[in-house]
Amino acid sequence: MDRRLPDPAHSLRRRDLIRNSVVAGAGLAAATSVLGRAAVALAGPADAKEPKYKTKHVIVVAFAGGVRQRDCVGTPQNVPNLMRIAKKGTVMTAVKAANLGHYGAALAIFTGCPEAQGIRQNERGTSPTLFEYVRKQADLPAHEVWLSTAAGAQTVNFTYGTDPEYGAKYGANLIGTDGLFNAEFRDLIQGFGQVSVPSAEESARIEKLAKSLDPGWLEGTKADGFANDPSANLRIQRYILEELRGDTAAITGPGAGDAKAIRVARNLLRLFRPRVVGVVLQNADVAHGSYNSYVEVIRRNDQEVGLLWDAVQADPVLRDTTSIFVLPEFGRDAALNQRNGLDHGDGSEDLHRIFCVAAGPDFKQDKVLQKPVDAFDICPTVADLFGVKTPEAKGKSIRGLFA
Ligand SMILES: [Zn+2]
């Protein structure tokens, strides 16, 4: 259990609560409080099975924007870091893309559903997301579940869907690097002077700032029913100030949006050690106009994913308890277009058949899994790691991945 986040009793089942209270020789008051919470747990909606895996934290990187297998795991020199991670885990080489819209196909990774045709880019999906399943059944507070995205208004839709059993109150905290690093936001923060994050005086200023703003000033908290508890909110605000002071804001050049999204995820992990972090990338879609720029984006993203992985390995808590999945939403055409770019629409194997690199304490090491699986199997696989069910998902947990 994560020691920095004082929430352990929350996600445990009744018999574990009782057993733990006995084993730990808890005093009467503590036992009473534990039993009180157990009663709440019984009455509540939480129905997660006791997780049987070592994984306590999961990172899902949608290496999206349309990326071919042959340009990544098929060309190891483009992705030395992914290959390094793969060596510690499993490469799945026969992953079928869910569908062929950037949005729908990426969403499918998080919902476990191939996603009905016709969901427009600016609409939420009808199926619950991985974030909702895990938060609801494992009874996790909002600050345990995050989504970091490159850009675009539609990315807000990845945080939760419209299923009335789930929805906003089980959604993920969203950091769209677009919003976070936009000039208006930076000016607002800079209006409060030179910020030194941990000082008490600054904390007071931050609190004042928070009060002066809409409570939903973080994108994604605007929706009804979604809320971080006040102490988490304060930590989140401090974190955002750190981000703005730090070097993430200064990233420029091709693929800068993606690089920021991965960097933000790394900082989130370092500071919050959340249970679930999703990252949605998209800059590789520059390929429509230039194959070379596309390869540049892949290399840069690989480098950032490598740094993310290294940060996890350097953290004594995360190292042995974190699993990562990296996969695109679909590939691209087999042949270059007239601009020396790559579109996505030829129906080729390069387009439909993608890859996934998965590593973590519960997975096979240094293996290639050639058995066909679906991109929308990732959601149920992650849920499985948490002992959580995905009743609305069409995908299945990828058993061949587990050691
Ligand atoms: Zn495209």
Describe the protein.
The chain is an alpha/beta fold and 403 residues long. The chain has 2 domains: 1-44, no CATH class; 56-181 and 212-401, Alkaline Phosphatase, subunit A, CATH 3.40.720.10. The chain contains 13 helices and 9 strands. The protein has helices at residues 14-23, 28-43, 80-87, 102-111, 130-137, 177-180, 183-190, 200-212, 230-245, 256-272, 291-314, 349-352, 378-385, and strands spanning 57-62, 89-96, 145-149, 173-176, 276-280, 322-327, 353-359, 367-369, 373-374. The radius of gyration is 21 Å and the shape is globular. The chain starts with 13 loop residues before the first helix and ends in an 18-residue tail after the last helix. Mean pLDDT is 79; it is low at 1-45, 192-198 and 212-224. Zinc ion (ZN) binds next to loops.
Features:
globular; 36% helix; 403 residues; 13 helices; binds zinc ion; Alkaline Phosphatase, subunit A; alpha/beta
Secondary structure topology:
Elements: H1 14-23, H2 28-43, E1 57-62, H3 80-87, E2 89-96, H4 102-111, H5 130-137, E3 145-149, E4 173-176, H6 177-180, H7 183-190, H8 200-212, H9 230-245, H10 256-272, E5 276-280, H11 291-314, E6 322-327, H12 349-352, E7 353-359, E8 367-369, E9 373-374, H13 378-385
Parallel strand pairs: 1-5, 1-6, 2-8, 2-9, 3-4, 3-5
Antiparallel strand pairs: 2-7, 6-7
Helix pairs in contact: 1-2, 3-11, 10-11
The chain binds zinc ion.
